[in-house]
């Protein structure tokens, strides 16, 4: 089997998740080419070397630009903070490398526009790109999209979406790059709000046309970390620094079809660890999903006899559900990491087949425009239209 050389930039939380995916995808799925974990890149030579040994990478680099000249790297996987996404992705595409880039696509609309333009130009030369909205690849989410596409919900009227976490509810939790606007672009809005924006558009097949939002930072300063963050945790030092991003975001939305949306993204929902809650109500039925019970989709069929009608609990672990056939027998549950594996499967297959994978950089740009409009609305106190 032909190898497809992978170069991963970043080795912390997302880097570990992506590494797991690159390792497991060819062991469970019949891929047209073999993803070879050739190079892991990070700035700290000792740390990246240790991570490579642990995560399964063959070689290391400390300068991402060297990956662009290596013949054994055909795919650049970008798992860095958002402030470097545009520079790395555009350079990689121009060097003829396929690109997988973590979400949100960029820190600004201008950066995302440049990335989408570079992706379109590269696609004309057979170079593929994809943005990592991995929750699309949860089997229950895939089933939800299928049911909507089949007309099971009729005309969509309402969309409700929440992404609830509590990892910085403690005001003494240390500063990380995710709380620095220069590195992250935004806080809860972009980091987790981007996911529910993408998911609701993906499931409904509709686009958000207008938004009205509010952002809030509850804790204005925090202790500066005394050790490097490797995920969502760290050790607090004695000095303090400003929090320059939002802690929570709420917004109303109107979809192009006329459906109404209510959204919430927060890192201060005490007791909620990773709750992605989506409910969609249509003229003929409803769907409900919560990632903290990620193998289950709730479906209500409004055409059933009212004597017995009710929400049906569907355990999305059957072979007929998206991606599940490659895994375990029915009822043997999948976890967080499987979405990343499915992402690898889709990207590698698209590259081998010469097709454009989804979500594309254009999809990422669409989400970025929604994020920017929410931020503008929060200060202008006015509804904002989303440019098409």
What's the short story on this structure?
The protein is an alpha/beta fold and 388 residues long. The chain has helices at residues 13-28, 45-55, 85-94, 109-123, 139-149, 181-184, 188-204, 336-353, 361-380, and strands at 3-9, 34-41, 59-61, 75-78, 98-102, 129-132, 156-164, 208-216, 221-225, 236-242, 248-255, 260-266, 275-282, 285-290, 296-301, 312-315, 384-385. The chain starts with a strand and ends with a strand.
- Parts with pLDDT < 50 across at least 5 consecutive residues: none
Number of helices: 9
- On the 0 to 100 scale, the average pLDDT is 96
**From the alpha-carbon coordinates, what is the Rg to the nearest angstrom?**
21 Å
Task: Give the end-to-end Cα distance, rounded to a whole number of Å.
Answer: 42 Å
Helix content: 25-40%
SS-derived structural category: alpha/beta
Number of strands: 17
Overall 3D shape: globular
Helix and strand element order? EHEHEEHEHEHEHHEEEEEEEEEHHE
Strand order of the largest sheet: 16-15-14-13-7-12-11-8-17
Mind summarizing the main beta sheet? 9 strands, mixed
Q: What fraction strand?
A: 25-35%
